[in-house]
Each structure stands twice: as structure tokens, then as C-alpha cells.
């Protein structure tokens, strides 16, 4: 036999002799059987690849136990790092997804505002003025009457007419999402 074959035979014997001891260490530390098997086998392959001389190992049990524990620690670090990277990527994906949704919602809101403004701009000036004072300034009918000089009956009529025209203009738009205007529509329904 060549010296290389002798070394391989010695490592094979070490593997067979100490596998149970090393597996017991891994099991005590909470590792599963498959992971332990993979780590032990890879450890012996690395020892062979590194050109470690098996006859130079004075206390094989202690030597192999120490290397095995270090491998377990390295595996834990690798798993933790992988988990951290995974968690980070998931948070980034959630953030990007949330940002995309927020951007999409913002674009929808801008479109809704543009449509409301377009319909509002087509209202007669008296209806615009009364709706503006009522809904944007939050004035009461009496306050609007004081500010404009219109009678309360005229204010009610202009509110009714303006809201009716707003509804007609908004519902005529294709692909218009009425759910996003649900609160506005509920508020406007009071005057129907």
C-alpha cells in the first residue's frame, strides 16, 4: 500500500471508531442526525484534503471532538448569517411591496382627486361656491348665507344641485373606483 492509501485507511478507521462519539456530541447539542452525518463526513474529507498526517494525531478522540465542535459552531454561525440575510431580504421585500402599494394608492388618489376636480370645475359657480364653503370651509348654512348673501333655501338648492351633478359626473367616469370615495359619497348622500 502507498502512504496515501495508508492514511486513507487510518482516517477510515478513525471515522468508524469515533463516529458514534461525535454523533452523540451533536445530538446532545440538539442537532439532527442528517446534519451531524454531513458535518462529520465533511470534516474527515477536509482532514484528508488538508494533508493532515493521521499518525501525528496524539489523542484522536480529543482532536476529532474539538474539530467537530468547531464545525458545529461554524455551522451555527453560517445558519445565523443565512437567517439574518433571509430576514433582511424579507423585510426589504415587504418594504418594497409596501412602498409599491403606497405608490399605487397615491397614484389612485391623485387620479380620484383629478377626476373630482374636473367634475367640480364644470359645476355652476354658485354650486361651486356653496360646496366649497360647506365642505372645505366647514361653514353652516347660516354662515354661508351671511358670507354670500344667498337665502338658506338657495343654499340648500345649490348644494343639492351641485351634489347631484358631482355624482353624475363621477359615476359617468369609466373604471372609477367608488370604494375609494366611499366616505365622500356617504357624506354627499345626506343631501339627496
Task: Describe the structure concisely for a colleague.
The protein is 80% helix and 0% strand.
Number of helices: 7
**Secondary structure: number of strands:** 0
Q: How many individual domains?
A: 2
What would you call the structural class? mainly alpha
Radius of gyration: 39 Å
Strand residues, percent: under 5%
How far the N terminus sits from the C terminus, by CA atoms, comes to 102 Å
Major sheet characteristics? none
Shape: rod-shaped
Helix-strand sequence: HHHHHHH
Helix share bin: over 70%
Which residues sit in consecutive blocks of at least 5 with pLDDT less than 50? Answer: 174-183, 185-192
Mean pLDDT: 80
Description:
The protein is mostly helical and 192 residues long. The protein folds into 2 domains: 3-90; 122-189, Arc Repressor Mutant, subunit A (Orthogonal Bundle). The chain contains 7 helices and no strands. Helix 1 runs antiparallel to helix 2 (33-49) and helix 1 packs across helix 3 (60-121). Residues 174-183 and 185-192 have low confidence and may be disordered.
List keywords for this structure.
single chain; 80% helix; 192 residues; mainly alpha; disordered C terminus
Question: Can you lay out the helices and strands and say which pair or pack?
Answer:
Elements: H1 3-28, H2 33-49, H3 60-121, H4 125-136, H5 141-148, H6 152-172, H7 182-189
